[in-house]
Design a protein that fits this description.
With 66 residues, this protein is mainly α. It has a domain at 4-40. 48% of the residues lie in helices and 0% in strands.
Length: 66
């Protein structure tokens, strides 16, 4: 698969954050922890990226690569 490796890394980072922190924190805590974990693994990302949403009538929605 084209993005199999990066997808595996992202899911691994999310699982690490979840297993370390558990539940009960505010969303921003998980965002910060995930950002730190993704940086450790050399993953480039942008937090809370603003995107234009296409109406439901659109037949094609373009999304940035994972």
């Amino acid at each position: 698969m084209r993005y199999e490796d990066v997808t595996h890394k992202i899911i691994g980072c999310a699982m690490k954050v979840h297993s370390t922190l558990g539940n009960g924190f505010q969303e921003v805590i998980y965002q910060r922890a995930l950002a730190i974990e993704m940086q450790k693994h050399g993953l480039e990302f942008q937090r809370e990226m603003e995107m234009t949403i296409c109406p439901l009538a659109c037949s094609l929605i373009l999304v940035p690569k994972v």
